[in-house]
What we know:
This protein is about 20% helix and about 30% strand. It has six helices and twelve strands. The protein has helices spanning about 10, 115, 135-140, 155-175, 240-245, 255-265, and strands at about 5, 40-50, 60-70, 75-85, 120-125, 150, 175-185, 190-195, 200, 205-210, 215-225, 235. The strands form three sheets. The chain has an eight-stranded antiparallel β-sheet, sandwiched between helices. A two-stranded antiparallel sheet has the order 5-6. A two-stranded antiparallel ribbon has the order 8-9. Strand 8 (about 190-195) and strand 9 (about 200) form a beta hairpin. It starts with a strand and ends in a 10-residue tail after the last helix.
Amino acid sequence: xxxxxxxxxxxxxxxxxxxxxxxxxxxxxxxxxxxxxxxxxxxxxxxxxxxxxxxxxxxxxxxxxxxxxxxxxxxxxxxxxxxxxxxxxxxxxxxxxxxxxxxxxxxxxxxxxxxxxxxxxxxxxxxxxxxxxxxxxxxxxxxxxxxxxxxxxxxxxxxxxxxxxxxxxxxxxxxxxxxxxxxxxxxxxxxxxxxxxxxxxxxxxxxxxxxxxxxxxxxxxxxxxxxxxxxxxxxxxxxxxxxxxxxxxxxxxxxxxxxxxxxxxxxxxxxxx
Length: 273
């Protein structure tokens, strides 16, 4: 059964202590630092895992699909973090007739479909449905409004979608990648939508980490939330640059001795750009 967990422990810690020797954090390299007061929701506990369309289904109560830091003020995630492996691609789950919906188990003030209806903005996944073909239920969880932001239609279907596809290519190439995505509220130039006043972000970010032999490589992207054509190659920033904008310490499970070098530059050759 799915478990939505808002951890009382995480809500009381001043900062999530995730820096560990060798950068190994029980496979949770994707998690940013978590500050006091953040509403943390973890989607886990799946009974229908199948890593290919022909594989038998299995249950794993400890399997985490993605983790959300939810922003109740703006009615959307602050960030969404997850890992994506080569094995997890190509499963049986399909988008089909899945509908966007409130998460009834998350004790946070969320948007709903009426907020987005006729607003001029689309429902933008931060953890994309296409990354969760390994479980129909996990894919359905990505349609919770805890994972959704108001997104420009062109950006959602073109520029951002192209970046999401490229991340899946990297998962196939490198075996596993660690991803953090979210909105950049900025000046909120487009105001809010709906009766719950969901803030329209000015931009979106995505940061990706991959192993490179005994070390790591990282890259980040910032895309404006509008219909401007934005090839992802033109949206590259370092993780350090992104952190200075969003105020969140990303990939903090890396050793400090490794983290600065990884986050301070982008090896475009490694990423095929």
